[in-house]
Predict the 3D structure of the following.
Amino acid sequence: MAAVVFLGLPLTVYAALLAGNALSAWRISRVLNRLEKIQVGDPAPTLFRTIEGCTIKQSGSEYDCQIYHFPLQFQWLDAAFAKLPDEVTWDERLRHLGLREQYLSVSATIDHERVQRISVGLMVAGRYESMGSQWEIAEHIPEGHLDGSSPDEDRRTFMNWFHITSFRSGEGFHLYVTPRSTPPELQARHANPHCLFSFRGCDGLCELMPDAIPVLKQRNRGFGGCTNVPHSSCELPSEHECRKSFGE
């Protein structure tokens, strides 16, 4: 009997942690899908219903909320686990067991009870690195990203790669969309929910944001950067060439 308890208790705890991971993935995925339907000028209550369950903090006309999933469910337990020797090794072991961190942030500007801007950031633990998907919708592209030579497509929808330099480094892709963005450009924001539920973790931005690929191909470009992790089977030629520069 003692042996059964000895073996059964860890398995029960592990199953509960996996279930918590799946529940968080479902919750974040649902919020993301709803946020993609919000448009500039929508009533503020529509946005608030979309992020229901996410604690909102207000500062003037700015509203923010965050959903963070800890692999071990509780922040204090993760903090205690982080104090173990070889913290990085232990974190990777948790990921190999399908226990992966997930983070969603949402910020919005509300004026006269109407949505003026929404910014959404998703961070997930991929197979080899952290991966991020960020998008923002507003009336115009921020001027800092444009100059006199910027083509009309960039003034309508601007896209750029960014490097993640947090505890576990990685890469991400940022889209700025406007009311003039085309349906494919709006769809390019969509993050693959499989990357939230995956036991192994997604492999590359092309898996996290597959709907961005048709738009990138139309513009004859890639995601815009790369890291020195193993290449993904779905990556674009420009990313493959970029990765070769690391000596892969």
In short: The chain has one domain: 2-244. DSSP finds ten helices and seven strands in the chain. Confidence is low (pLDDT under 50) at residues 2-6.
